[in-house]
Design brief:
By secondary structure, this protein is an alpha/beta fold. It has two domains: about 50 residues, no CATH class; about 270 residues, Rossmann fold. The chain contains twelve helices and 15 strands. Strands 1-2-3-4-8-7-6-9-10-14-13 form an eleven-stranded mixed β-sheet, with helices on both faces. A hairpin with a 2-residue loop joins strand 3 and strand 4. Helix 10 crosses helix 11. The radius of gyration is 19 Å and the shape is globular.
Length: about 325
């Protein structure tokens, strides 16, 4: 953890500022120490291996179930703990899990939709092995990786492998997405990559996102398990409810988004775009993509979409921290 994180970090219990008490540091950050809030009844949290360990939202059954699931299944092969493979995620994701081969390109296109200023704070929620946070950091933003698992190789401690391999840095916070420990209107962008559908509480997660995102900020997500009427009527049988993984109906997601002051825009995910252009020829495929993005109700019948949420306040102006490119469709 670097001390500049304290400018936006707030106690998840009482919303007051923190004081930092370092015990050990290296050339990058405070590796071990304590942060103590300045509330009437101070709350204290540890910094271990550079990770701010809050865990105040871990009382949900879904959070504990997810941690137990990950810790019990990430075994059985030395390749799962090979730093050479993990350091090159997402390029090597398909070496371990073939069904994730499109995750990297989909997230790269998500980042391309955001023009991130060097001083922009970007919160990457549900980052897992942190490769999405690494890609964001390489764009020059000030990135915070948030996850419920701090494990080596598949949790927040994977960050040390990425720091050495890629010469980047990002903050790490051990906390639930229902308890975002930041001051109001402090984050320029929030990203989810195949993580929002692990939320233990849909309404509370969107409420927290709405609270911490700047009025001109954006919440961006891709590779999520949202389902339309078609998916419910004709299920593919591929979804799983292991851990905290669950499918979220679009109607519930959009209702919760609107109730928390967001408008939504939908775009074709990169791997779907490439598939359409490959089957139909680039010109015809591109025409179909534009048609799908013009009519989001049709796009939602596909299995994946890139989704952007923006505050609906009439006072919204272009941000100095992040701009959204080519928004063409709204719900």
């Amino acid at each position: 953890m670097k001390s500049e994180l304290l400018t936006i970090l707030r106690c998840p219990e009482c919303r007051t500022r923190f004081g930092l008490f370092p015990a050990a540091s290296d050339h990058r950050e405070v590796r071990r120490g304590t942060i103590v809030c300045k509330g009437l009844e101070p709350h204290s949290y540890e910094i271990v291996d550079g990770i701010v360990r809050l865990e105040t939202g871990f009382n949900h059954d879904a959070v504990r179930r997810e941690i137990d699931y990950e810790n019990s299944t990430y075994t059985g092969s030395e390749r799962l703990t090979d730093p050479r493979i993990i350091a090159q995620f997402p390029d090597t994701l398909s070496d371990l899990w073939p069904h994730t081969c499109h995750f990297g390109s989909d997230f790269q296109v998500l980042i391309d939709r955001l023009e991130l200023a060097p001083d922009a704070w970007v919160l990457d929620i549900g980052t897992g092995p942190c490769w999405s946070s690494r890609l964001l950091a390489q764009r020059g933003a000030r990135v915070i990786a948030l996850d419920v698992n701090e494990a080596d190789y598949y949790g927040l401690k994977t960050s040390d492998i990425l720091f050495e391999a890629h010469g980047v840095y990002f903050e790490r916070i051990l906390e639930s997405m229902t308890r975002l420990p930041f001051k109001d209107s402090s984050v320029h962008a929030i990203t989810f990559n195949a993580s929002f559908h692990h939320t233990p509480d849909l309404e509370e997660t969107l409420k927290e996102c709405a609270r911490v995102i700047r009025p001109d900020g954006v919440v961006a997500m891709v590779n999520e398990e949202f389902v339309s009427f078609r998916h419910r009527m004709f299920p593919s049988g591929q979804s799983s409810d292991t851990g905290s993984h669950h499918c979220i109906p679009y109607v519930e997601f959009e209702k919760a988004s609107r109730s928390n002051g967001f408008s939504s825009s939908y775009f074709v995910a990169d791997h779907v775009r490439k598939r359409l252009e490959g089957k139909l020829a680039p010109a015809l495929g591109g025409l179909l993509v534009r048609a799908l993005e013009t009519f989001p109700s049709t796009l939602k019948q596909l299995n994946s979409a890139l989704i952007l949420l923006r505050k609906t306040s009439p006072s919204t102006r272009p941000t100095q921290g992040v701009k959204v490119l080519a928004e063409t469709a709204s719900s």
